Amino acid sequence: MSLETLPPLREVIATHGLAARKSLGQNFLLDLNLTGKIARQAGDLSGHDVLEIGPGPGGLTRALLAEGARKVVAIEADPRCLPALAEIGEAAPERLTVLSGDALKLDPLAHLQSPIKVVANLPYNVGTELLVRWLTPSTWPPFWDSLTLMFQKEVAERIVAQPGSKAYGRLAVLSQFRSDPHICFELSPQAFSPPPKVTSAVVHIKALSAPRFNAEPKLLSEVVARAFNQRRKMLRASLKGIVPEVQPVLESVGIDPQRRAETVSLEEFCRLSEAIREARA
């Protein structure tokens, strides 16, 4: 058996009884032309290991292997999918490792060799949490060169949002601080089985070698979280208590204390974070 002779995904789903489960955030993408398009957004996969989360019946897994990934490590929480994935492994000997379990609890790095790309149709219920973890590691550069991920369109727009827009928030700041994100394309609900209630979008995020602006990452994350947790409040109120007197700190970096978080640029948040670090010291 080869990748080209594997049965259609609808047949695989029927054979293995893989009705999508809402509790696992499953919406299967069955069009192999679309899974191939997603894999190609990650760029040249030859010479790269690829981490995939939530492969399900393996449509994207097949595409990643067909596009030349050196190895795919797939984490799957649904044991019903393992026999279908095993068939793909037989068609691509020694190039697929499947880890059974929760992607939030498993560490796949022992099974991966650099350079590494992450490509996944993320389950809706864990997508944002995984992204934040990948964007906020303890050291930088991270283990990954790039992330090519499918999200609900609303989440994708939050990742690339600019100041002044309703979508702009903590996710935009964290994404753009040390990486370069852009939306590749959208997918209609009808592309999935079962169709979700929302449009989806594929986002490509390339890691930068260093942050765009100088800031201590953990403190920046704290400042941004506080500012956006009460986004309708003025900064002097939402950041109250982060230092004994926050208003003079804001003024020292040229930020009007009456502004709201959604108007503050990434560069300004970084300057503010550094001023807060100095005030605490």
Q: CA-to-CA gap between the ends?
A: 64 Å
The fourth-level CATH homologous superfamily of the largest domain is: Vaccinia Virus protein VP39
Estimated share of beta-strand residues: 15-25%
Largest sheet: 7 strands, mixed
Helix count, DSSP H or I runs of 4 or more residues: 11
**Can you list the strand order of the major beta sheet?**
4-3-2-5-6-9-7
Low-confidence region ranges: none
Cα-atom radius of gyration: 21 Å
Q: Which percent range fits the helix content?
A: 25-40%
CATH topology description of the largest domain? Rossmann fold
The overall average pLDDT, rounded, is 96
Helix-strand string: HEHEHEHEEHEHHEEEHHHH
Q: What is the approximate shape?
A: elongated
Number of strands: 9
CATH architecture descriptor of the largest domain: 3-Layer(aba) Sandwich
**CATH class assignment of the largest domain:** Alpha Beta
Total domain modules: 2
Structural class: alpha/beta
Structure in a nutshell:
The protein is 36% helix and 18% strand. The protein has helices spanning 9-16, 32-41, 59-66, 82-91, 127-135, 153-160, 170-178, 217-229, 235-238, 246-252, 266-280; strands at residues 28-29, 49-53, 71-76, 96-100, 116-121, 146-152, 179-187, 192-193, 200-207.
Account of the 3D structure:
This protein is of the alpha/beta class. The protein has 2 domains: 3-207, Rossmann fold; 217-280, Helicase, Ruva Protein, domain 3, CATH 1.10.8.100. The chain contains 11 helices and 9 strands. The chain has a 7-stranded mixed beta sheet, sandwiched between helices. It has a two-stranded antiparallel ribbon with strand order 1-8. Helix 2 (32-41) crosses helix 3, helix 8 packs across helix 11 and helix 10 crosses helix 11.
